[in-house]
Design goal:
Keywords: Hydrolase. GO terms for molecular function: hydrolase activity. It holds the Pfam family Lactamase_B. It comes from Aminipila terrae. The structure is a single chain. The chain has a single domain, classed as Metallo-beta-lactamase, Chain A. Helix content is about 35%, strand content about 20%. It is built from nine helices and twelve strands. The strands form two sheets. Strands 1-2-3-4-5-6-7 form a seven-stranded mixed β-sheet, with helices on both faces. Strands 8-9-10-11-12 form a five-stranded mixed β-sheet. The radius of gyration is 18 Å and the shape is globular. The termini are close together. The relative contact order is 0.14. The structure holds zinc ion. The site of zinc ion has 5 residues, from loops.
C-alpha cells in the first residue's frame, strides 16, 4: 500500500514491482557519475555500487551482479572519470545477496582485491543462495576479512565505519565514510539492506537496526544519504542530474542529517506497508 501525500502527489515510498526484480539482471544498461570528488556511483537499472578513492587505492562497495558485464561497467566507469583500475584494492560488501556480492569474482581474480563482509553473511551467502535453483548465482569467491559492529576499515586517508544492522539478512552491514564535494568534507551513510525482510520478527530486527544506524549517523555528523538500489532514492535521476551538474549547483546527495533521517523513513514506511499486508 502506498500512501500518496496530497501535496504534488508525492509517494511516501517507492512502488516495488516484480519487474524491478527482473531488471536487476538486465546487463544491457549501465550508467555512472562522479557524485563526489572521491566517490563514483555505477549502476544498472536497479542495483548500484560505489567506488571510493582513498590515498591507498580504490575501494568498491557492493558489486551489482555476477556478470562480467557488471565488472566491465565498473572498470569502464573508473577509467571514464580518469582513475586507474590498477589501484583497485578492496571490495566491501553490505550483505550476502547476489545483487550485492555481484561481480566480485572478477575483481578478486583480475585485481586481487581484499574482500570484506560479516562472517554470518558469508555463511548465509553459501548456505542460502538468493536464487537456489541457479548455480551460476551461488557463492563464487572468498571473504578475506570478517567485519563486526564498530569495526573501522583503514584505507589510507580515509576510514570506513562499520555497523552491524541485521534484518534484511542476518549479518547485514551498513557503512559511514567521509567524502568531499569541491574539497569540502562530508560524511556519507549507506544502510545495507534496502528492503524489509519477510517475517514480522525479522522486520522488527530490521527496524531496530535502522534506529541504531540513524543514531550512529548522528554521532558521525552524516549529511549524505546513499542507497544501493535506485528504486529507493530515484537513483537514476540523481545520477543523471549529477552527470550534468554545474559546479555552482547543489550536490543532490548532500541532504544534511535531518535529510538523512527523513530519507531513512522510507525503510520504516516499507516495513509498515509490509506488516499491514500480513
Ligand atoms: Zn539484499
Amino acid at each position: 500500500m502506498n500512501k500518496i501525500n496530497n501535496v504534488l502527489n508525492r509517494l511516501d515510498s517507492p512502488v516495488l514491482t516484480k519487474q524491478k526484480i527482473i531488471d536487476m539482471e538486465d546487463m544491457s544498461f549501465f550508467t555512472h557519475a562522479l557524485i563526489f570528488d572521491d566517490l563514483l556511483i555505477v549502476t544498472q537499472k536497479e542495483t548500484n555500487c560505489f567506488v571510493l578513492k582513498s590515498s591507498e587505492g580504490l575501494i568498491v562497495i557492493d558489486a551489482i551482479w555476477p556478470s562480467v558485464k557488471a565488472y566491465e561497467a565498473i572498470v569502464g566507469a573508473i577509467k571514464d572519470v580518469g582513475w586507474n583500475p590498477d589501484l583497485l584494492y578492496k571490495l566491501i560488501l553490505t550483505h550476502g545477496h547476489v545483487d550485492h556480492t555481484g561481480c566480485g569474482k572478477w575483481l578478486v581474480n583480475n585485481h586481487n582485491v581484499k574482500t570484506y563482509m560479516s562472517r554470518i553473511d558469508d555463511i548465509y551467502w553459501r548456505e542460502y543462495p538468493t536464487k537456489p535453483d541457479r548455480p551460476e548465482t551461488w557463492k563464487n569467491y572468498n571473504i578475506d576479512v570478517y567485519l563486526n559492529d564498530k569495526d573501522v576499515i583503514l584505507c589510507g586517508d580515509k576510514k570506513i565505519y562499520v555497523y552491524s544492522t541485521p534484518g534484511h539478512t542476518p549479518g547485514c552491514l551498513s557503512y559511514i565514510f567521509p567524502v568531499k564535494d569541491n574539497d569540502i568534507p562530508h560524511m556519507a551513510a549507506i544502510f545495507g539492506g534496502a528492503t524489509p525482510p519477510r517475517t514480522k520478527p525479522d522486520i522488527q530486527t530490521y527496524m531496530d537496526s535502522l534506529d541504531y544506524f540513524i543514531k550512529e549517523a548522528d554521532k558521525k555528523n552524516v549529511d549524505v544519504a546513499l542507497s544501493n538500489h535506485t528504486a529507493i532514492d530515484n537513483g537514476l535521476l540523481r545520477i543523471a542530474y549529477s552527470k550534468v551538474r554545474y559546479s555552482y549547483m547543489p550536490n543532490i546527495y548532500i541532504v544534511g542529517y535531518e535529510g538523512f533521517k527523513k530519507y531513512s523513513q522510507v525503510f520504516k514506511t516499507l516495513s509498515n506497508n509490509m506488516i499491514s499486508d500480513f
